[in-house]
User: Fold Cytochrome c from Vreelandella zhuhanensis.
Amino acid sequence: MSYITSVRSASPRRGCGRGASIVLGIFLMLGVSATSLAAEPVKPELTSKLQGLLKKEMIQIELAMQEVYSAIIQGQHAVVAEKGQSIHDSFILEQSLTDQDRQDLKAAVSPEFLQMDTYLHELSASLAEAGRGEDTPRQVEIFGRMTESCVACHRTYVTDRFEGLKGSDVPAAWGLAPRNTK
Assistant:
């Protein structure tokens, strides 16, 4: 949420330059190379099939997020909608897994990991909707929350691959769905 706050409080004294710089900074945080995803999985207990699916999903998400960034700053709403939907549709638990695969996945990762993954995919559905609605401010907001979610997950579960996040002071709310306050 601090990203959203910083965007809203950013001075417009240089037109879109400051906002673009902030978004560029987030984009650079996404600059994880696909080769770094070839390291150890979240937990060594993942089967090779699940390791492959998870790596494939993370690579697809990273590439789609890079395309979303470019589409947002160019006002290409249809691309934002398409890529947001593609991230949503890559959801590992929605893929054609056997019952055994599902059991293996749930045994190998924490429930919190699955919650973070679910939230990212919920955000991507919202991003697709914002793209279809041609709502650029909402696209930027959701993209920022998605980036926060990726950073929080990598900080929590894969610092062996993303060592620069080990000492990061990542807010506890990043990567978590807001609680219903009914």
Notes: The mean pLDDT is 76. The CA atoms of residues 1 and 145 lie 7 Å apart.
